[in-house]
Amino acid sequence: MMIQRRSRTLAVACLLTATVTLAAAGCAKSETSSNAGGDSSQGAQEAKSPDSSSGSGCSLKTYGAPKLDLKNAVVGFSQSEKEANPFRIAETRSIKDEAKKIGVKKLLTTNAQSQLSKQISDIQDMLSQGAQFLIVAPLNSDGLEPALKAAAAKKVPVLTIDRTVNSAACKDYVAFLGSDFVEQGKRAADAMIKATDGKGKVAILLGASGNTVTTDRTKGFVDQVKAKAPGLEIVAQQTGEFARDKGQQVMEQLIQSKPDITAVYAENDEMGLGAITALKAAGKKPGKDIKIVSIDGTRNAVQALVNGEYNAVIESNPRFGPLAFATAQKFYAGEVIPQNVIITDREYDEANAKESLGGAY
Questions:
Q1: DSSP 8-state class, residue 173
Q2: Are 50 and 340 spatial neighbours (Cβ–Cβ below 8 Å)?
Q3: DSSP assignment of 163-231, as one string?
Q4: Angle of helix 2-36 versus helix 86-102 axis, rounded to 10
């Protein structure tokens, strides 16, 4: 009887333990999922002063589109890449949240899964479903012409966000909303110069090829290092495709081929976080033995900064929803929209990382 009671007690205890464990795991998963994109109400984008925007501008009249009340409209959003990183998660969430907030009648959302052909067909499908205004996060700067021309043929305005397109403003699209990527590269270089005292050997983890983000962030960094820190030698430039696993693989290779590297500039946080994993596995101390600076402002990267495993993060704010819809409303009100609406981006360093963590995405 005593053995049976003890067995029953043990079984109950095990059941409770398992329940608690599952609950904790469920909470952890939920927290990771919900925090991956951050709080879309925090850190909203702000456009720089009109003087810092560029281009002749575009109005509803010059674009030739019909007047529209967004609250009674069908709006389409084309996401370019699978939502496997915090930037894309936060970007999509921000668009959805703001559409709901202002009362958009219907929001169509698609994801191209990093395939240009799919993004073209996604946009064409949304047009066939009656989309009257489009917000597009281009996969590449080139290649979207068939989709943009299909929208123009139906007099459907297109607002591009986060990546520019090599097409005609106020003809193929209304305007671009996003960061100054060259400036981001320069600021990353300044942060790296500060972290290294302008000396050492740095490797660049390049983003994906074929878009202006990679080109501009590289140019800004390289030019600034050459101008301000001739003692900081760029010894490697290799693509990590903006992906954490690829960034880790490239870093593992660089540890072997360039063992004297003292710093890493990653053109997005995911590659930088992958580099941390590779460096730790090699017995090195990221943030100390190897200085790391990256661009984006994800919560994981800012946390690494708090932990002393990073040296600086230049923000690239993905919360486009409020600014995108505000720009659309101004456009339909007859205002002239600059060709490039450039946003302000913060910077995280060892001094402000802990207190700023809540605003990261």
A1: B
A2: no
A3: S--SS-BTTTBSEEEE--HHHHHHHHHHHHHHHHTT-EEEEEEE--TTSHHHHHHHHHHHHHHHHH-TT
A4: 80
**Nearest alpha carbon to residue 108 among 79, 151, 87, 84:** 79
Token pair belonging to 351: 């001094």
C-beta separation of 287 from 12 below 8 A: no
pLDDT tens for the 361 residues of the chain, in order = 433 433 444 343 433 333 333 333 333 332 233 344 444 445 666 776 444 455 579 999 999 999 999 999 999 999 999 888 899 999 999 999 999 999 999 999 999 999 999 999 999 999 999 999 999 999 999 999 999 999 999 999 999 999 999 999 999 999 999 999 999 999 999 999 999 999 999 999 999 988 899 999 999 999 999 999 999 999 999 999 999 999 999 999 999 999 999 999 999 999 999 999 999 999 999 999 999 999 999 999 999 999 999 999 999 999 999 999 999 999 999 999 999 999 999 999 999 999 999 999 9
